[in-house]
Each structure stands twice: as C-alpha cells, then as structure tokens.
Specification:
This protein has three helices and eleven strands. With 184 residues, it is an alpha/beta fold. The protein has a six-stranded mixed beta sheet, with helices on one face. Strands 4-5-6-8-7 form a five-stranded mixed beta sheet, with no helix packed on it. The chain is globular and about 45 Å long. Belongs to the metallophosphoesterase superfamily. YfcE family.
C-alpha cells in the first residue's frame, strides 16, 4: 500500500500542478486528500495562480486514485466540479498489518481532540498548514503541511509505504521519516 497524502491546496493551480508532478513521479496506489482543495477561505490571502477550476481539472485527472475528506473550506458546490467524493468528515484506511490510518481535515478532530485509534495506528490531518510527524500515546500524528499556503516555511506532502511515513517538500526532497508505532 503506497499512499500520497496532501492537504490545503486552496485553489492554487501552480502548486496543484507541482503536486500532480509528484503524484506522477511517486506513482502511489492511492492519493489521500485531507481537504481545503478549491477555495482559499476567508482567513487566507489568495494563493499564487488562484484558479479553482484548473485545480478541479488537475485533480479530476487522478480521480480513480483519490480518496478525499472535507475541509472547513469545502462546500457542496465543490462537489459539483470534482469527479470524486469530497464531503466525508473522515475516512479510515487499514494497512496490510491491520493498523488503522484515521484521516480527517483537522477542524473537527485534531491532536487535542483525537478520535479513538488503536495503538499502532496513525491520525492524519491537515488544517494547520504545519507539518507534523510525531508519536503520542502509541499513535503517530501526521500532518503533511500545506501544498500552497504553508505556515511553517515549505510547501509539502507526505508518503506512506510499508509502515513508514515520509514528509517531503513539494520538490520531492525528504524532510523527515517515522515508522508507525509497534502494535501493543
């Protein structure tokens, strides 16, 4: 199971195009999008090359690989232009070893308000635009950061393969890695 995880594109055609290059290069089985795909939101400045329809067209090109959750900026109109479901508050994936990956945007559940996840699993979220890769209480907290409006210095995404999460800059350069905690 190879998963590319990205969040907070916020309608930037430029950085979505760079994400599409990473998707093509990484060749994941699944692209997991953690919300805030098309709209920039009232608290954010317009991202570079703001063009939500171009972002929708780019992402629709990967529709057969995408699993997406709703961010706080998603609206029903977004679903009208996206060819994959994007309105679920969360999704759960299970890896080959039976470990749960709970994926959400981060505005409903977050590290301060976690849903139940069995030890050895991971909590995947976006929303803060800040990368995170750390274990707490037997759960790995994973935030891929933001594709277009980072609040921690670099545009980024994450990869998951064989129980290992990698944080990468949008250029593809590796920033950090961490294994899922051992099953207890």
């Amino acid at each position: 199971m190879k998963i590319l995880i990205a969040s907070d594109v916020h309608g930037s055609a430029r950085f979505c195009s760079m994400l599409a290059e990473r998707i093509a290069e990484e060749d994941p089985d699944t692209v997991l999008l953690l919300g805030d795909l098309l709209y920039h939101g009232p608290r954010n400045a317009l991202p570079e090359q703001y063009d939500p329809m171009a972002v929708a067209d780019t992402l629709n090109g990967f529709k057969q690989h995408i699993i997406a959750v709703r961010g706080n900026c998603e609206a029903e109109v977004d679903q009208m232009v996206l060819d994959f479901p994007c309105m679920a508050d969360y999704t759960e994936l299970v890896d080959a070893q039976g470990r749960t990956l709970f994926a959400t945007h981060g505005h409903l559940w977050n590290p301060e308000s976690l849903p139940y996840i069995a030890p050895g699993g991971a909590f995947l979220y976006g929303h803060t635009h800040k990368k995170q890769l750390e274990e707490t209480g037997g759960i790995l907290l994973v935030n891929p950061g933001s594709v277009s409006i980072p609040k921690d210095g670099s545009r980024s995404y994450a990869m998951f393969e064989d129980g290992v999460f990698s944080l990468k800059e949008l250029s593809g350069d590796l920033l950090a890695e961490a294994e899922l905690p051992s099953l207890r």
